[in-house]
C-alpha cells in the first residue's frame, strides 16, 4: 500500500533537485545513479530507458531507495525506500518533458518520423 508523501518530501521532489536512485545488482550489491525525478500525487516518477542498468535491475528486483537533496541547502534532504510498482512507456517523452522542464526549463526535441 502506498504511503502518503509529506509536504516536505513533495517540496523536494517538485523543486529542481536531483536524486540518487539505488537498485540492486544480480549479486545483491547496490548500484546508485543520479536521476531527475517528478511526481504524480504520491507516486514518484523516474524516467529511464528500458535498456538501462537501473531498469534491468528493477525488472529483476523492484526494491529501490532514493535520496533527494535540496540543490540550495544540502541539509534539506529525504531518504526513501520502496518498490517499483509501475512501468510506463514514454515514447513521446510526456513524463520526461515534464521533469526536464521543471529541472532545466526546456523539453526533449523529438524528431518527426
CATH-level-4 superfamily name: Electron Transport, Fmn-binding Protein, Chain A
What is the level-2 CATH architecture name?
Roll
Number of strands: 5
CATH topology: Pnp Oxidase, Chain A
Unreliable runs: none
- How many helical elements? 3
Report the span from N to C terminus.
Answer: 41 Å
Going by helix content, strand content and strand pairing, the class is alpha+beta
Element pattern in H and E: HEEEHEEH
Q: What general form does the structure show?
A: globular
The CATH class: Mainly Beta
Strand order of the largest sheet: 3-2-1-4-5
Report Rg.
Answer: 14 Å
State the helical fraction. 10-25%
Major sheet: 5 strands, antiparallel
Strand content is 25-35%
Mean pLDDT: 87
Integer count of domains? 1
What do you see in this structure?
- With 113 residues, this protein is an alpha+beta fold.
- It has one domain: Pnp Oxidase, Chain A (Roll).
- It is built from three helices and five strands.
- Strands 3-2-1-4-5 form a five-stranded antiparallel beta sheet.
- The radius of gyration is 14 Å and the shape is globular.
- The model has no long low-confidence stretch (mean pLDDT 87).
Notable traits:
alpha+beta; Pnp Oxidase, Chain A; 5-stranded antiparallel sheet; globular
Helices, strands, pairings?
Layout lengths: L6 H8 L3 E7 L5 E11 L2 E4 L6 H8 L2 E7 L7 E7 L10 H11 L9
Antiparallel strand pairs: 1-2, 1-4, 2-3, 4-5
Would you kindly provide a brief summary of this structure?
The chain is α+β, with helices and mostly antiparallel strands and 113 residues long.
